[in-house]
Amino acid sequence: ALVSSPEQVRFPSPSKKKKKNHLVPSLIGNARFTSSKIPLFKEDSVSMSRPFGLKDYRKIYERSIEDPAGFWSEIASQFYWKEKWDLEVYSENIDVRKGSIKFEWFKGASTNISYNTLDRNIEAGNGGKVAIYWEGNEPDDDGQLTYLELLERVCQLANYLKHVGVRKGDAVIIYLPMLMELPIAMLACARIGAVHSVVFAGFSSESLSQRIIDCKPKLVITCNAVKRGSKAIHLKDIVDSALRESAKNGVTVDLCLTVENKSAMKRGDTKWKEGRDIWWQDVVPHFPTKCDVEWVDAEDPLFLLYTSGSTGKPKGVLHTTGGYMVYTATTFKYAFDYKPSDIYWCTADCGWITGHSYITYGPLLNGATVVAPNYPDCGRCWDIVDKYKVTIFYTAPTLVRSLMREGDEYVTRHDRKSIRVLASVGEPINPSAWRWFYNVVGNSRCPISDTWWQTETGGLMITPLPGAWPQKPGSATFPFFGVQPVIVDEKGNEIEGECSGYLCIKKSWPGAFRTLYGDHERYQTTYFKPFAGYYFTGDGCSRDKDGYFWLTGRVDDVINVSGHRIGTVEVESALVSHPQCAEAAVVGIEHEIKGQGIYAFVTLVEGVPFSEEIRKSLILSVRNQIGAFAAPDKIHWAPALPKTRSGKIMRRILRKIASRQLDELGDTSTLADPSVVDQLIALADF
Ligand code: PRX
C-alpha cells in the first residue's frame, strides 16, 4: 500500500524544463489583469505553486486527455489504498447505443475516504492542526476541532453506528444544519462503509419523507432545533412528521439520533418518542475514540444526494468512493491554489453538493483548515474573514449580489487582507457582481475562480486556475484536467470554435456520478439519451473566439434560485396539491439577488375567486411541500392557461409574460384559444 505526504495532491509534472516566471497577459474581454495585481504561483511555494500559466495548463491538460489512465493513477497513488486498482485504471461506456452506461475508476482497489481525510493526515504529523473552525448563529458562539479531535469524534459515532447495527452499504439520512456534527456524521458513515444521504435542513417534512421512502435508511440523524437569526426552527418536529408519513408508506425507521442543540432549544421542550429517539450526547461520547475502518471497493457507494430534475420526483445522485476522492481533492487543490497555510471558507451548506465536495471531503483530504459558519449577516461575513484570516473564500453569486446591495461600507471597513483567492459557484455570476466581488471584496488583487459544475459531476469541471490566465467576468474559462466539454447543436453534432449550444461532456472523469439510486434507466434517459455518445449537462453554453466557456443557464425545466436547483414540476405539483388549485404552470424569471425567481401561473377550481388569502395559502403549500427556499416570488392568477390544441401548456409564452416581454410573445395562433393570452396580460400587475 502507498502512503505519501497527505498535505498536497501533486500533479504529474508536465515537463522537466524550468519555467519562466509567467506574466498574466493584460486585457482580454473586460477584465484587466496585470501581473503586479494578481498573486502568481511563487517559485518557492509547494507543489503546483510555481509559476503556472496557460502553456503549463495546456501541456498538463493534453496529457490528461491523451492518457487519462496514467494521469489519474499518478495522482491517485498519493492516497492510501489498501489494495491497488486493476491494471485498467478505468473503463467506461458513455454511449447508450453501445449498451448500458457505465463508468468505473480504480476498479479493484480498496480504500476508505475517512481514513484518507483523517488518519492519513494525522500520521503525517497534522493531528494538532485545526481541521474545522465553526461559527454559530451568534458571533461569540464558535468552536474548533483539530484533525485528531475530529478523528476521535468520528470514531465514536462510527462505533455507535456499528453498535446499533449499521453495516456497510446501509443508508443513513442526515438532516442537520451546519453543526460540527454534520461533517462528523458524514465521515463516520464513510468510515464504516455506510452510505450517507444528507438532506438540506431547509427541506420540508414532505421532501424529507420522500427521500426516506426512496432510500430506506437504517436511522435518521438530526437535531432538536436550530436558530436562524432570531428564529428557532424545530427540526425534530419536521423529522417526526416525515417519519410518520414514511411509515404510512411502509418505510419505518426505528432510530432517530438527535443532537441536542442547546443554543436553540432545551431538551425538555423537545417532542420525544421513547424507544425511537436517542440523544446523541447521551450515547455517542461513551463509545471508544478508535474505530477500525471498513475498507471498501473504489466503486462502492459513498453517498446519495437528491437533486431536482425537470420531471418527477427528486433523483438520488449516487457517488462512489475512489474516483470521487481523487477528483474532489485534486480539483480543490488546483482550482483554489490551496497551500497548507491557507484558511479556507466555503459559505455553502453540507446539504448541497458544494458542501460535500468542498467542505467535508476535498479540503480535509488536502489537510486544509475549513471554516464552517452559520448564516452571517452582511457585515458578519467579513468579521469571520478577519477573525480567522481566511485566505480562500468560496461563495455563491446570490450572496455576492445581496452583499453588494448593502453597499461597500460593510466590506471596506474590514481588513480582508488575508484573502488571496475568491471563488464562486452555483449559477452564472453576472459581470456586475463579478466586478464588485473582484474590485471591492478582493481590492482588485485576488483572482476569481468561477467554478462550473453540478451535483452529478461530483467536483468542479470548468474553472479558472487562480492567476494562471486572464479572466473575463462571467466566464468559467477552461475545463479542468481530464474534462472534455463539448458544445453540441440540437441534433447532437459537436460544434467548433465560436458558437452556442448545449453543453455536453465527452468522456468519463473520476468524480462522475455512477447512477441514480434505484433507477439506472432514468439515469440513462435523462443524461445520456438526449445526445447519444455524450453526458448531457442540461446547461446552455457558448464559447468565444478565445475558447472561453460561458455558461448561460439551464435549458430544461429546472430553475436555479439562489443557487438552489428546483424543478418547475416540483413547484407545480406542490401548488396543485392545494385543494383550491386546479392547474399551475411555473417559469423562472430574472431576479436581482437570487439570480432566478419563481413565477407561478395558477388556475383555481371553478367558482373560487382569487384573493390575497388564496395567494398566501398557495405559497404556504409550496413551503410545506418543498421548503421555504422554493416559495414562489409571484402568483399570477390565470383563469386559463395558454395551451396548444393538443393540450400542451405553451411555457414559451408564459415566460415572456412573466418577464414582461410582451412584444416578444411570438406566434400565438397555434393556441387552442389565443384570447387566453390577452386575458393573462390584463390580469398582470406589473
Ligand atoms: O446550471 C448550472 C448551475 O447550477 C447547476 C447545477 O446545480 P447543482 O447540481 O445544484 O450544483 C450546484 C453547485 C455545483 C448547473 O447545471 N451552475 C453551477 N455553477 C455554475 C452554474 N452556472 C453557471 N456558472 C457556474 N459557475
From TrEMBL:
CDD domains according to UniProt: ACS (cd05966)
Residues forming coiled coils: none
InterPro entries tied to this protein: Ac_CoA_lig, ACAS_N, AMP-bd_C, AMP-bd_C_sf, AMP-binding_CS, AMP-dep_synth/lig_dom, ANL_N_sf
PROSITE patterns, per the entry: AMP_BINDING
Keyword Repeat: no
Domain AMP-dependent synthetase/ligase: 125-508
Sequence ranges assigned to domain AMP-binding enzyme C-terminal in this UniProt record: 570-648
GO MF annotation: an example: AMP binding
Catalytic activity line of the entry: (E)-4-coumarate + ATP + CoA = (E)-4-coumaroyl-CoA + AMP + diphosphate; acetate + ATP + CoA = acetyl-CoA + AMP + diphosphate
Domain Acetyl-coenzyme A synthetase N-terminal: 57-116
Top EC class for this record: ligase
BP GO annotations: acetyl-CoA biosynthetic process from acetate; phenylpropanoid metabolic process
EC number(s) stated in the UniProt entry for this protein: 6.2.1.1
Keyword annotations of the record: ATP-binding, Ligase, Nucleotide-binding
Family (UniProt): Belongs to the ATP-dependent AMP-binding enzyme family.
Protein name stated in the entry: Acetyl-coenzyme A synthetase
